[in-house]
TrEMBL record:
Protein source organism: Lactiplantibacillus garii
PANTHER family according to UniProt: FERRIC ENTEROBACTIN TRANSPORT PROTEIN FEPE, TYROSINE-PROTEIN KINASE
Listed InterPro entries: Bact_polysacc_biosynth/exp (IPR050445), P-loop_NTPase (IPR027417), Wzc-like_C (IPR005702), YlxH/NBP35 (IPR033756)
GO-annotated molecular function: ATP binding; identical protein binding; non-membrane spanning protein tyrosine kinase activity
Catalysis performed (reactions): L-tyrosyl-[protein] + ATP = O-phospho-L-tyrosyl-[protein] + ADP + H(+)
NCBIfam families with a match to the protein in the record: eps_fam
Family assignment from sequence similarity: Belongs to the CpsD/CapB family.
GO process annotations (BP): polysaccharide biosynthetic process
Protein name: non-specific protein-tyrosine kinase
Class of this enzyme: transferase
EC assignment: 2.7.10.2
Pfam families per the UniProt record, alphabetical: ParA
Keywords: ATP-binding, Capsule biogenesis/degradation, Exopolysaccharide synthesis, Kinase, Nucleotide-binding, Transferase, Tyrosine-protein kinase
Listed GO CC annotations: plasma membrane
């Protein structure tokens, strides 16, 4: 499994892959901090599958997913990043991949070998794009084949990160929540509404999600124009904090 030739990382589309483009930047350091805090939050859990989601669109969940995947891979873990947003996928653009086959293809039995839907990207990092948009994304993500896929993948890999759809507009993430070991909620400053974040957390808990915490994204540091804050990066807030 996962034996094909690695692709060159292309980062000119969609998401800014800061961990590749600016490995020494403060933002990359904050991605490392998120990785560390996720590990601490999951200390009672054997974290093999992690879902990253948000309350609504445009909060940066795919940015966090992709950059986290790179940093875990740099640490020596074998990581599979899965674009589980079958409705509005972006991961294939981030890595410059053709989205002809992917998760939807495998779940809908349109490929015989799962390796045909997975792309080696760099040392220890593999990417599974979303595949063509299906007519029934919720049914595919909530089905037994998705459960079997995650189980099989964790036998071959150290960590599977699923970039999932936002919680409130569709049911997809609710269906995925009970299939993964942990969930991180991305909250974008000046975009996310408090009521929506509360509703998303309540919905995830009802779906039996192991909500590890929330990443506060795009925090403006007014002393450094154009940078992102929690000291120019991303802040991690554990779910137990008030």
């Amino acid at each position: 499994m996962f034996k094909r030739k690695k692709q060159a990382v292309t980062t000119t589309n969609a998401i800014n892959l800061t961990t590749v483009n600016e490995p020494m930047s403060v933002i990359t350091e904050q991605i490392k901090t998120i990785r560390t805090n996720v590990n601490f939050a999951a200390n009672d859990v054997n974290l093999r599958t992690l879902m990253v989601t948000s309350a609504m669109l445009g909060e940066g969940k795919s940015t966090v997913s992709a950059n986290l995947a790179v940093e875990y891979a740099k640490e020596g873990m074998k990581v599979l990043l899965v674009d589980g947003d079958l409705r509005r996928p972006t991961i294939h653009k981030t890595f410059g991949l053709v989205n002809q086959r992917g998760l939807s293809s495998w779940l809908a039995n349109q490929v015989d070998d799962v390796n045909d839907a997975i792309h080696p990207i760099m040392d220890n990092l593999f990417v599974m794009t979303s595949g063509p948009k299906p007519p029934n994304p919720a049914e595919l993500l909530g089905g037994l084949k998705m459960t079997d896929f995650l189980t099989t993948a964790t036998r071959k890999l150290d960590l599977v990160i699923v970039d999932a759809p936002p919680v409130l507009p569709v049911t997809d993430s609710q269906l995925l929540a009970s299939k993964v070991d942990g969930t991180v909620l991305v909250v974008r400053q000046n975009v996310a509404q408090k009521a929506a974040v509360r509703d998303a957390m309540t919905t995830l808990k009802r779906s039996k999600a192991n909500l590890l915490g929330a990443v506060l994204n795009d925090v403006q540091d007014h002393s450094h124009r154009g940078y992102y804050g929690y000291q120019d990066g991303y802040g991690y807030y554990n779910n137990e904090e008030k």
